[in-house]
Amino acid sequence: MSRAGLWFKVIAGGILISIGGPAFVEYIRPTDEELRKRYNPDLQKRAAEQGSRREQEFDDYVTKLKEWSKSDKSIWYAAQEEQDRRRAAEDAQRSQAKEQAKVQREEMRKEMLGEK
Hints:
Elements: H1 3-28, H2 32-38, H3 41-70, H4 75-115
Organism: Penicillium citrinum
Region (Disordered): 81-116
Membrane topology: Single-pass membrane protein
């Protein structure tokens, strides 16, 4: 066999593998709709209910990523600062709720003692 024939076979095989492989995978891969049809009814119902919520969460996350990327800091530092701010706000809210509960308990105790 000549060298030209060998090179032709190698190139044809490479083209077949590099184009035909992904095309075959795309052909046999089921679509999202086909996958949903294979779900049992409970999963179909749950996926339909949670779909919009998950899309909203993803959109919120992408929006935050865009916001963090505008910062001159690394995205990871910006995300950490955001998490720290959120945690501090939650702690402040929790301590405020504890303080209100404490005041309410004190008022209830005073009412009970005053009525006796």
